[in-house]
# Entry
Amino acid sequence: MNVNRRKRYSIKYNDHRILVIDFGSQYTQLLLRRIRELGVYSELCSWNISESQVFAFNPKGIILSGGPHSVNERHAPYIPEFFFQLGVPIFGICYGMQIMSLQLGGQVTHAIVQREFGCSQITILSENVLINDIYDCVDGVTGRLTLDVWMSHGDVITTVPKGFSIIGVNKYNQVAIMANEDRRLYGVQFHPEVTHTKKGKFILERFITCICRCQSSWKITNIINNVVMDIRMKVGKDKVVLGLSGGIDSLVTALLLRRAIGRQFICIFIDNGLLLNYEFNRIRDVCAKNYNLDVIYVSKEQQFLNALIGVVDPEEKRKVIGRVFTEVFEEQIRGLVGVKWLAQGTIYSDVIESGRTFSSGKNVIKSHHNVGGFFGIMGIRLLEPIRNLFKDEVRNIGVDLGLPYDIVYRYPFPGPGLAVRILGEVKKEYCDILRKVDFIFIEELKRDNLYYKVSQAFAVFLPIYSVGIQGDRRKYKWVIALRAVETVDFMTAHWVYLSYDFLNKVSNRIVNEVEEVSRVVYDISSKPPATIEWE
Ligand code: XMP
# Structure
């Protein structure tokens, strides 16, 4: 790498970083997570990243992700040629390996019969630093070592490029692992980032620590110090305003700001009337008592509910809430003197999902608290101190900074709040019913030690009148659905097998204590095809 060129860029964390090139695999986020779990900082970038951006990032190694394309498609994404001149190790996964093979002179064809999707086994043919001593079984007949892996591919490499050796093959005797030791280029046909590849994390670790020689320095104390230094450098003596949403991301952002710039910032918490009461009160307590944060609490329930009159479409509801939020926030900011920065608790999955990874060039503000209306007009700059962190990293910081466990590990609550848990038009009456029901459900989950075993649980208000009997009279009242899911990443989720006894207890309490409800149902749909929220 050209040393003079490197000097032009400031290196933010340290030199031990891995760059992941995104070819569109559904497992790319997982790949990043795995690398960071190894204590090594990594970022995702688009495959058409520029040379200067790569120099700026200064990776010790590059991983090429899998992807849905076939390398022989006309507009298939490819590896920029300068990558091969960088002199850093490159590790191609699935599509990443196939495209590397093709670009370096190998041959790849479409496997009509021998496609592989799911668990599979590969046989190791020769030694290689990438997989030495990493195996699952020894083949009883051949005495060869085998690996249990997760495959998902339609193309196969028929000829490896010059200088490469075949290290492992699949059950059809096709290339499953290849390596060019001299140039430190490696490829695997399977997905080491997926847990079904039992030894996958060891293979990734081998690449990152032995081949790239990365040190494990992405640790919570270093992360906090880096973020704090970064905030100080950017903000200087300027004043900052932070939108507190009640979620862990903005709360951790507040604590980091506190550490970085003391009282040079102010938080604004807008009560839109669509919150769960106990959540709002808990956050207020924590902010005031434990951390002495300066928070302006703005109660605008009526303004939000008025704007939602007659709105039934879920996306329209989100838009209306976003618009009113912007108006209220703007009004508050105009009343503050000398604010130069708007801080947001944007995290890395928001960045990835909105296509704002550092090479994409987009810069969209987190949509569910979209404050873009005044941003720019008022010359306020955006500050996103935790934009490079994943949720579990944010939670770890929360724990490190002393946030109570129940706050750090509470269930996610959507930005538009109860509006997406009330089907159709939102009314105060429905919000109040939902708050009472949700409280009972959550209280019982906690009482039976189920709260932390479930990833997310909540109640949904169905605007349907259903018959019930009260005293000796038939009465028509509302229906409530309960939802509880287990998930790791919230992209897929399974409904939770809550016991009949538990459901019975919750249902009895709801119909007895919330007189507006006559019927309770339990949602047994998984995602996909259903989503976690009902709207
Ligand atoms: P879905 O319903 O998409 O939910 O399966 C996945 C996760 O995202 C949360 N969610 C939202 N969060 N604004 C948010 O801030 C929203 O509009 C929104 N919709 C869903 C949901 O609670 C779950 O954790």
